[in-house]
Amino acid sequence: MGLRPTKIYESPPLPVIPSAARNLLLLFFTVKSRFLVASLLGMTERLDNSRRSEANHLLRLLLALALGAGAAWGQVKKSKALPPPPDLPGHVNYLAKQLIGVPLDESDALTSKIQKLVLDHLDEWMTSRTPTVVEPRRELETVFALLRNPLSADANSFSQPWKSETLIGVGYTLRWTDYNRVNVLALYENREGKSRRVALTNFVPHTDQRYEFLSPPESGDFRFLVYGFRTGKSQLRLSANLYDFDGQTLKTVWETRDVYDGKIDVDKDRVVIRYLKEDEYIRETAQRRKPPRYEATYKETSQGLELVADRQIPF
C-alpha cells in the first residue's frame, strides 16, 4: 500500500553537526529507517504499539543528539576564536573591525585599546628622533594601513618652535561611519635629538580635527586651536577648543560647540567665526529667502578668548 500524501512545509535550518555525530545519525537512520520514515511522516498509527513506541523514542533521541552536537560544536568554534595578528597594523585592524555596528557611546573599550597600541608604538618610535612634521603622520598612516571601508583613520601632525625646544603634535581621527568618529592628539617635547610625550587629549567626538596657532600670550605659554566639523544635518557644525600648554599641563581655556555652518579664521591674536542660526536658516529657506549670516570676533586674552563683536553680515 502506498503512503498517503502529506502536507509539505519548510523546516528551520538544522544546526551544524560535526562529522562524527553525522555518522552516528546515519547509522540510526539505516537501522531503523522503516520506523523513522513512518514517524517523520506522521504515520506511526500504522505500526503496532511496541514498534510505534520504539520509533518515537528513537526520533526523540536523534533530535537530542543533533541539537546537543550543534551546541557543542558552537562552543568549540567560540573557544577557538582566532587571536589578534602579531603585527601592529594587523592588531589595530583586528580591533577596529569590531567597531562596525557599535554606537559611539559604547565604543570606549575598543577605541581605548586601539589608542594604547598606537601611542605605545609612537612613544617608542619618537624617543630618539627629531622628526620632520611629515614623518610622524606617515608613521601613523603605516599603523592604520590595513583599515578598509567603512573604517578609516586620518592622521595629522604639526611642529612648532617653543622657547628652546620644539613641540610636536601627532594625532588621528578614527571613524567607522561619518557620524562615529573619535579623536586623539599627543603632544611631544623635542630637545637635544630626543622626543617625549608631555600631554594627551581627546578632542570632541563626531568631528575631524585640524590645527591653527595663535600668538603666545604674555605668560609665554604655547597656545593652539583644534577645530573640526560634524556631519548629520543640512549644514556642517563647527566645534573648536583653544588649548594652553605651560610646559607641564595641557588645558582647555576656551571652547565652542556645534556652530551651525561655522567657518573659522585665525589671525595672530584674533579668531573670527562666521555662522548661521539654525532656526532662522530653516524658516527663511522654507520661504525661499536668504537667511542672515553672523560674524563673531574674539580677541586672545590671558584667560583664553573674549568676544569683542558679534554682528550680522550679508549672506
Walk me through the structure.
The protein is an alpha+beta fold and 315 residues long. It has 3 domains: 19-79; 83-189, no CATH class; 203-315, no CATH class. 31% of the residues lie in helices and 33% in strands. It is built from 7 helices and 12 strands. The strands form 3 sheets. The chain has a 4-stranded antiparallel β-sheet, covered by helices on one side. Strands 5-6-7-8 form a 4-stranded antiparallel β-sheet, with no helix packed on it. A 4-stranded antiparallel β-sheet has the order 9-10-11-12, with no helix packed on it. A hairpin with a 6-residue loop joins strand 6 (222-230) and strand 7. The longest helix is centred in the N-terminal third of the chain and has 31 residues, at 49-79.
The coarse silhouette is flat
Give me the count of strands: 12
Structural class label: alpha+beta
Strand order of the largest sheet: 1-2-3-4
What's the average pLDDT? Answer: 85
Radius of gyration: 32 Å
How are helices and strands ordered from N to C? HHHHHHEEEEEEEEEEHEE
Regions with little confidence, pLDDT below 50 for 5+ residues: 1-17, 24-47
Number of domains: 3
Strand content: 25-35%
| Helical content band | 25-40%
Regarding quaternary structure, what we see is single chain
C-alpha end-to-end distance: 90 Å
Q: Total helix count? A: 7
Biggest β-sheet description? 4 strands, antiparallel
